[in-house]
Design a protein that fits this description.
With 76 residues, the protein is an all-beta fold. The chain has strands spanning 2-3, 10-11, 32-36, 43-47, 54-57, 63-65, 73-75. The protein has a five-stranded antiparallel sheet, with no helix packed on it. A two-stranded antiparallel ribbon has the order 1-2.
């Protein structure tokens, strides 16, 4: 097991060569927020790493700064 120096979450380094939480491959049990992308209609996730809050589209890579108040639905 290894602790990520950026987010302090623990992951199995035998399964991942980099932090799967920072990269978005895995999510912990925290509440996640979502919304629909205004450009393509795809799903957007709220990235809160490194002290900034940015909405990013998983389909077209559109992004903008915002927070939980901009969410259209809650995941988890």
């Amino acid at each position: 097991m290894q602790m990520c120096p950026d987010c302090d979450r623990v992951y199995d380094e035998s399964e991942y060569s980099f932090c799967p939480y920072c990269s978005g491959i895995l999510f912990d049990d925290e509440v996640r927020y979502g919304r629909n992308c205004p450009k393509c209609g795809g799903a957007m996730d709220l990235d809160t790493l490194y002290g900034t809050k940015t909405w990013f589209c998983t389909n077209c890579d559109y992004e903008f700064e915002g927070d939980e108040d901009d969410a259209e639905y809650v995941i988890g």
